[in-house]
Amino acid sequence: MPPLLSIVLPVHGVERFLPQCLGSLRADGAAPGEVELIAVDDRSPDGCGALLDAHAAADPRMRVLHLAENRGLGGARTAGLAEATGTYVWFVDSDDWLPEGTIDAVLAELRAETAREVPADVLITDFTHVHHDGGTEPNPWRKVLAGSPLVSGCTAAEHPALFNAVLAVWNKVVRRAYLLGLDVHFGRGHYEDISVTYPLLLAADRLLYLDRPCYNYRRGRPGAITATASPKHADAFAQYDAIFAFLERNERADALRTLVFDRTVKQALTVYDTPGLVPVELRPEFFARITAHFAKHRPADYRYPSGVRGVQYRLAARGSRRAYAELRRGGRLPGAVKRGAGAVAPGVKKAVRSGARFTAYNAFKRLPVDENLAVYAAYWHRGYACNPAAIYAKAKELAPQVRGVWVVENAERAAALPAGVPYVIVNTPAYLKAMATAKYFVNNVNFPHAMTKRTGTVHVQTQHGTPLKAMGMDLVDRPLAADGMDFERLREVVGRWDYLVSPNPHTSKHFARAFPGTYQVLDTGYPRNDRLALATPEQCVDARRALRIADGQRTVLYAPTHRESRGGYLPLLDLPALAERLGPGWTVLVRTHYFHDGGAGDLTAAPGSATLLDVSDHPVVEDLYLAADVLVTDYSSMMFDYAVLDRPIAVYAPDWEEYQEVRGVYFDLMEEPPGAATTDQDALVEALLAGDPEPEARQRFRERFCPWDDGRAAERVVSRIFPLRA
Q: Does the structure show a pLDDT above 50 at 565?
């Protein structure tokens, strides 16, 4: 009778780690012959071969293959698979190890599966990251798997979020006959397993998840491909070709082509963006390979993601490497929008070409720093907004000798500025001079990396929200949320900050870790919230009338946040159904995240329903706060601002489990909400109709997140940054 489980162990250059791995392969509860161990000595240059032979002499389950030439990890796995006879096969890397009792637990699952009419093709296990200092971290994608249909068994099409989890082969126990029947092969070089794991998941009749940590994955060891510069990172493209060749011949798998394409592009750009992986001299070629991947494999119905990631993908598809690099430096593509270029302000010329731009900027840097010039910007030069706008207004009052100028991305944005606000347009000579000579810089994001920090200048980072979700360096081990973030570049830009404005003690605590630096934290509250703290009833009435909300209407502001794992705006709330339940005495203002273009889409509701208004393009979000009687959101930082008004807040978060797993959060929103919190739309409607069902929760929330909101935050910031006029 063949073994139930074959463990294939490729071995090369891991003499230091091999004894721990071999010692972890015990199976005290296994029947004789139920487990076989096949170790493949891939012509290891150290003492691994002798260690394997010694272990095999004492363990009758184990046999050793000594390869005549080095075949790489993929080739060693292939050699081991050819010798395996088990019903299931598990590829374990020899620098990792299994927790105690793992093989017995896996065998119990496999025995149950073989008794089924349709046994699992792939058993996916949970795992633990183990860092070089001995610290551990649970599987960051566990909640994509736990509680999902995978627990009882399903196909990839029934749970496509599976592809947001790790796609390595080492945490997947595979039915051997199924694997051999797929006609897929481990690749050569780096990323050798994805040409097998993608097909394994895509074509399976039944995928199963075992919610138990069954694998200790060693992160950050010297020589690991995720931390080593090598031309072999380009091997990924051959594996991508193999994956798409499989899609061509498998109808079930081909149904998920778009998802697979997006995942491969994301991985390729992450490799390209990660410092120290692709050698400098090979980066142009690697980027060209990404462009070729778009041309070769992009599905006919493919839609680019929204926001900055979508812009990155478009530039990669066009082969625009320099523009892509500029986008990476500044967070936005400076000068990308040129609409209305002829309508610039008097005395402002058109944008300077790239080469001449830096020549001019460097020339302007020879001028003295202007001690009375401050440059302001917000949301990647979108306009007059947020904390910088509140600081600008208060500085005009308290430090009028300091001239403020706003940076906007084009003439259209300039036309939308409040009357009398001075501005410069990105990449014009006036902009280059201001950036080269100003004493003060105030922004709620980062200024372009190419603009260096001169000695004696003062950079004020205000950020633009209280963090529920993980930020900055806290995303190092969350690749789906980091979305290709350049952490070395992040450290560089944080090094420019002199001040970081904090809205509350919670933010001060977490930003100190997320953005490590030598700056001073200003525990002042958010200047943008002064307007809310000082709002009068008359101002609230004026805000409602400006939005044409009829008198007597109960008004809801619905504002969902951006989700990295989704494309464009995708409301999880059925708005027409909500409007129908609320009835004609209600108005619902719908505000999409600023990353999403096109607004909220069709908001047609049935007769007799609440009025649905798309306010996504309204320029001042504080107007919407003042107009609304209640806020409905999911994870948006708007909840922390709106709480200043002490009005009801309802959290509707049907994907909370997925969101906190993918993105990471700083506290459990469902345990510590600002008001009613639910994952069910009917429960949300009931909470809205109840009026103010959770005032105690709101009070606790306000005590934690609004202690500094007294209407004087801007004054405190200005007095710390600028010389005040006596």
A: no
